[in-house]
Amino acid sequence: MQHFIIGSKTTSIFPSTKPEAPIIYLNIFSDEGQKVYETAQDTVWPLFTLVSISDLDWNHDMSPWNSPPAFKNVEPCTGGAVDYLRYEREDYPNGKEGYWQSSSLAWGRRVLAGRIVRSILHLLRTVQENTEAILAYYHSKEIDTVFQSNQGNHFLQSVERTTAGIAWMLSR
After folding, report:
1. Residue 60, helix vs strand vs coil
2. Distance from CA of residue 91 to its chain's centroid?
3. Element (H, E) at 135
4. Measured between alpha carbons, how far is 35 from 12 in angstroms, rounded to an integer?
5. C-alpha to C-alpha distance for 153 and 140, rounded to whole angstroms
């Protein structure tokens, strides 16, 4: 593993032993890069190089537009995703080769919160319906896409979910 800082982001590279192996870029919250790489290597998946990027400002780097705080006493989202993508293309070698986002809805997702459970369930039902509509659209365009609903939320079993996504991507 190689570990260094580019700009304000910490980058760890877990190189493949195969020079022509694909490169997966993974935005991580803390130290999940090592865990994802180890979990992936314990399987029979194709070899790949993992570039994990941490020390992100999630409310800025992962948000495509400004939005008010989703919860009380949290920071608003400040819409820096376009700048972050530009940063990746300009500062990371082979930045255009491959990119995996750890959350399947990371760029468009909104954290849903509220006081009335019924309204939250209604909103979640709408999110699922919209996601299924997007899936149907991609399928109609013959874009290889899969939607998988999992128990819990994206904070649970994140390493396993991420490695499953990488395995799916590499199998294509």
Report:
1. helix
2. 19
3. helix 117-140
4. 12
5. 28
122: its two tokens:
């209604």
- The length of the chain in residues reads 172
pTM of the complete model: 0.68
> Token digits for 152?
């819990």
Give per-residue pLDDT as tens, 38-55.
888 877 566 788 889 999
Residue 43 CB-half CA count within 13 A: 15
Question: Torsions phi, psi of 13, nearest 5?
Answer: -115, 125
Q: Phi-psi region for residue 62, left (φ > 0), alpha (ψ -120 to 50) or beta?
A: alpha
Tens-digit pLDDT profile for residues 60-84: 988 888 888 877 888 998 988 888 8
The values of phi and psi at residue 97, to 5°, are -70, -40
